[in-house]
Fold this protein.
Amino acid sequence: MTGQHQGIPLRVDIVSDVVCPWCIIGYKQLQKALSMMPGEFEVSLNWHPFELNPQMPSQGQNLREHLQQKYGAGPEQGRAVRERLTALGQSLGFYFDYHDEMRMVNTFRAHQLLHWAQTQGRQTELKLALFEAFFSQREDVSDLDVLAHTAKTVGLDQVEALAVLGDDRYAAVVRAEQQHWLERDVHAVPTFLFNGKYPVPGAQDAETFVRILNKIRTRS
């Protein structure tokens, strides 16, 4: 009698923002690492809120102005980073469509919608759709209609999505969760936490994730 191989339980907590390019890069690198170890893990993904720009006004801000104010990055430096991200994204199967008039936006609404999506079993699908909406389709992921439509594309109810955003029912819990991660000294994203005890900061390459996963496998 042969028993079916069961993968090692792997809970992955990812603290991130939907307007953070390195967050989608890091996720793609993790997926690449997991694909290099097929069948080894039973993965449970859990996304957690982090606002890169909690004080961002509702109208947003031109990306070039934002990067210059926040990081002191000049136009050439910003362009070089965007070109690097675009090439890296392409190598991992994600399309960045950067443009000169791109705007950085507030993401608190998006995080509320993601919290609701988790209760519906669609959190990862919505997270990836929001990355694509912002970076690939040039959409404003602070806009109520854009958010609700994006929810619809992953099988969520569009009317209910608008209701969730309209009454702020998850605002307090999202604020509390943001605070929880800040108190755990998560001040930059992406931050990955494996099985509650192996933190990995930043968008590491797939080989780095493989090393972490091998460590977890040998200790399980």
Observations:
- The chain has a mean pLDDT of 92.
